[in-house]
TrEMBL record:
Keyword Zinc appears in the UniProt entry: no
Protein name: Putative oxoglutarate/iron-dependent dioxygenase, non-heme dioxygenase domain-containing protein
Keywords noted in UniProt: Dioxygenase, Iron, Metal-binding, Oxidoreductase
Protein family (similarity comment): Belongs to the iron/ascorbate-dependent oxidoreductase family.
Phylogenetic classification of the source organism: Eukaryota, Viridiplantae, Streptophyta, Embryophyta, Tracheophyta
Pfam families reported in the protein's UniProt record: 2OG-FeII_Oxy, DIOX_N
GO function term, MF aspect, one: dioxygenase activity
Species of provenance: Rosa chinensis
Fe2OG dioxygenase domain segment(s): 197-298
């Protein structure tokens, strides 16, 4: 990527400020009571973690975790493999390009809200195939499959990805349980939705950009799934829209921490107790950056709606049920075809 193509240029009100607000950041939560000991023998300190997570979800929608239990060598291995993969010539990467039928593989022309993102990505799923609806049409009951496309180079990438995601899945499940508890629900309340999960993992590469004040690595957006578990490197660039005043706050890289955010599905399940918060990625004129989000998503046939235990006459449901798979395929297709309209949002299902 050389000079900035107009397709990348953000409208003036969405351009990043080069002076970064570093003040009070997102909460950092130590998971050692959960990861180092078992749940039952240490109820007190786990209750503390549950409270911290509940407050972070309410106040920020974002938090970092340390002592999370994911072995560092697994993270380093996937990071090194990602570097090697993206360092290849474009034509080699495009051999496994994703297309209209298969959402998995390499892609370098993604847009957010119809503006190009200054990045390239490699997407894969937990299982080698993922069942999804064949079309966004609610009447169409046909299913389709997405299939992982592994590159020839580097040869260790596949194993590095598979081993890494098994570890991050354990963390994601723990977090799901802690979030459920923070809502006063049984720890396993959401687990059944993930039996045929449609989780996707992404290797992001943000190359240096000659005009970081005009373009974004990822434009402002909310994650559509349940929970995101993100590894970022030491460069930094992720910004979160602070709920109290709408300012964009930089998430400072903390070595070996994960950044967690609740997605739209958690917002609906919790009936707006936990909101999915807007975020975006700034790029740098000299430094490239890598990140690895794990998008923890339920089975495509999941009907997403506020959980019954959280609604009553005083707190009626704020959303009508929607199909996660249909939502996801609708988004994907409108991105792919660049329909020029704003994408489907959970707001469309608000009562
Ligand atoms: C995303 C995202 C943040 C980052 O891919 O949805 O928000 O730091 N990524 O790469
Ligand atoms: Ni995101």
């Amino acid at each position: 990527m050389g000079e900035v193509d107009p397709a990348f240029i953000q409208d003036p009100e969405h351009r990043p400020k080069l002076s970064i607000i570093k003040a009070e950041g997102i909460p950092s939560i130590d998971l050692s009571p959960v990861t180092l000991q078992d749940f039952i023998s240490y109820p007190k300190s786990i209750e503390g973690v549950v409270r911290e997570i509940g407050n972070a979800c309410k106040e920020w929608g974002f938090f970092q975790v340390i002592n999370h239990g994911v072995p560092l060598e697994k993270l380093h291995r996937i990071q090194a493999a990602a570097r090697k993969f993206f360092a290849q010539p474009l034509e080699d990467k495009r051999k496994i390009r994703r297309d209209e039928r298969n959402a998995l593989g390499y892609f370098d022309t993604e847009s957010t809200k119809n503006i190009r993102d200054w990045k390239e990505v490699f997407d894969f799923s937990m299982e080698d195939t993922t069942l999804v609806p064949a079309s966004p049409d609610p009447e169409d009951k046909e299913e389709a499959t997405w299939t992982n496309q592994w590159p020839e180079y580097p040869p260790e990438l596949r194993e590095a990805c598979e081993e890494y995601t098994q570890e991050v899945e354990k963390l994601a499940l723990k977090l799901l349980g802690l979030i459920a508890r923070s809502l006063g629900l049984p720890e396993n309340r959401f687990n059944s939705y993930f039996k045929d999960q449609s989780t996707r993992i992404r290797l992001n590469h943000y190359p240096p950009c000659p005009s970081p004040q005009l373009a974004l690595g990822v434009g402002r957006h909310k994650d559509g799934g349940a929970l995101t578990v993100l590894a970022q490197d030491e460069i930094g660039g992720l910004e979160v829209k602070r709920k109290t005043d709408g300012e964009w706050i930089r998430v400072q890289p903390t070595p070996n921490a994960y950044i967690i955010n609740v997605g739209d599905i958690m917002q609906v399940w919790s009936n707006d107790r936990y909101e999915s918060v807007e975020h975006r990625v700034m790029v740098d004129s000299e430094k490239e950056r890598f990140s690895i989000p794990f998008f923890f998503n339920p089975a495509h046939y999941t009907l997403v709606k506020p959980v019954e235990e959280l609604i009553d006459e005083q707190n009626p449901a704020k959303y009508r049920p929607y199909s996660w798979g249909k939502f996801m395929t609708h988004r994907r297709l409108s991105n792919f075809k660049k329909l020029g309209v704003d994408n489907i949002q959970i707001y469309d299902f608000r009562l």
